[in-house]
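Example 3.2
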Amino acid sequence: MKKTIMTILAVAMTALFGGNAAAQQYALHYSDSTTARLAEGDTITHLLQDWEAEMHVAYISFYVENLTDDTLATNQIVTAIDMPSGMNFVVCAAGQCREDQQLLPDYKIAPKSIHNEVVTIEPHFEGLEVGEAIFKLEVGNAGTMDNKVTVYIKLDISKRASISDVHQNPVKVYPNPTRGRVTVGDSEYDLSTRPAGVYVLPYEGSAVRVIKL
């Protein structure tokens, strides 16, 4: 009888305090879908390529992985923890880019898969030669941000990567020039709200140039 009571008590305590932590639902991959999963709370340092410096904009991209056996409705929040005066940023996800992140749509990620559309943070720093920024990226369940995973990004616009490489391998980009939507590889971007000009869009850890008419 005493053993039974102790067993019931143990089960009750497990239910009360949650027992083992809930399984992680998301993982993030910096820059390329083949890079190692980032750990919760990791900080990555984004070094500018020469072409980013020339365009006065950084393209900091992450692939989102669904670790569960269910389809997940997903969204993200990007927060500038520290940012120099004169710098601003937009967030791109689900093929759209917005300064007001609340206008970005939710997107669904299939079970046990990496979403083919990257989440990109684009800090713009025209007129700045030096300055550091720190961003926080949270990716979680759409609507509630439950089960989120969080990473931090450090950007120093005075530092450069050792190798500059705009993607040289063949990649299907169409239509180019475009008046709105453009497909880069397996990803689609909506430039319809952007002014005419040349845009550099991320692709497999590098980038391609697209002309917006």
